[in-house]
């Protein structure tokens, strides 16, 4: 069995060829699917794949994060109104599986935060936070059951957003891979 990564020639798996073929067959995976599974397991070591979405199911996503979530509870005007509790991940650990055409976005003030929500049911299952425009804020209550072990909640004083983010030691780095 040979794997062909993008932009390069075939890779000779040597003595692992039979093992690779048996793995693919046992799990009914294409070569690309098997490679993705192994790369995900290596790159996201210590993380679990959570899946989730909106209420009506039009929007679905997967996100690689810890089973023990660190969730922010912000008291800014929009987070208070929406009860927006979220954890932050790098964009590389988030994948929209379906529903891009069913999302709409609301912005205000600096227009940095992109508050996305389902056009059908109105649920915001994720958004692009102002503090981490290169990542995603994920609503833990929109994750499917079975992958979250614990949730630790930290209050953030969003009413004084600039000061809170400036004084917080890690929030701006949470979207870094």
Structural write-up:
- It is a single chain.
- This protein is α+β, with helices and mostly antiparallel strands.
- The chain has helices at 17-27, 31-43, 77-82, 161-167; strands spanning 2-3, 11-12, 48-53, 60-65, 68-74, 85-90, 94-98, 103-106, 115-118, 126-127, 135-138, 150-156.
- The protein has a 5-stranded mixed β-sheet. A 3-stranded antiparallel β-sheet has the order 3-4-7, with no helix packed on it.
- A hairpin with a 6-residue loop joins strand 3 and strand 4.
- The longest helix has 13 residues, at 31-43.
- The protein is elongated.
Low-confidence residue ranges: none
CATH topology of the largest domain: Metal Binding Protein, Guanine Nucleotide Exchange Factor, Chain A
Strand content: 25-35%
Q: Could you state the order of secondary-structure elements as H and E?
A: EEHHEEEHEEEEEEEH
Q: What would the principal axes of the Cα set say about the shape? A: elongated
Assembly classification:
single chain
- Helix proportion range: 10-25%
How would a textbook summarize the main sheet?
A: 5 strands, mixed
State the total count of DSSP E strands.
12
DSSP helical segment count: 4
Strand order of the largest sheet: 10-11-6-5-12
Mean pLDDT: 88
- Secondary-structure class: alpha+beta
Question: What's the CATH architecture of the largest domain?
Answer: Beta Complex
User: Which CATH first-tier class of the largest domain would you pick?
Assistant: Mainly Beta
Radius of gyration: 19 Å
């Amino acid at each position: 069995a040979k794997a062909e990564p993008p932009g390069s020639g075939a890779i000779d798996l040597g003595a692992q060829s039979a093992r690779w073929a048996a793995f693919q067959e046992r799990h009914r995976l294409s070569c690309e699917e098997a490679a993705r599974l192994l790369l995900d397991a290596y790159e996201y070591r210590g993380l679990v794949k959570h899946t989730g979405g909106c209420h009506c199911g039009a929007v679905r996503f997967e996100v690689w994060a810890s089973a023990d979530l660190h969730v922010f509870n912000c008291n800014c005007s929009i987070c208070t109104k929406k009860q927006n509790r979220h954890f932050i991940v790098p964009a590389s650990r988030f994948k929209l599986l379906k529903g891009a055409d069913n999302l709409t976005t609301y912005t205000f003030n600096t227009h940095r935060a992109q508050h996305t929500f389902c056009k059908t049911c109105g649920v915001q299952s994720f958004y692009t936070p102002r503090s981490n425009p290169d990542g995603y804020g994920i609503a833990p209550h929109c994750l499917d059951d079975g992958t979250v072990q614990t949730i630790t909640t930290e209050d953030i004083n969003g009413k004084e957003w600039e000061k809170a983010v400036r004084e917080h030691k890690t929030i701006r780095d949470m979207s870094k891979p």
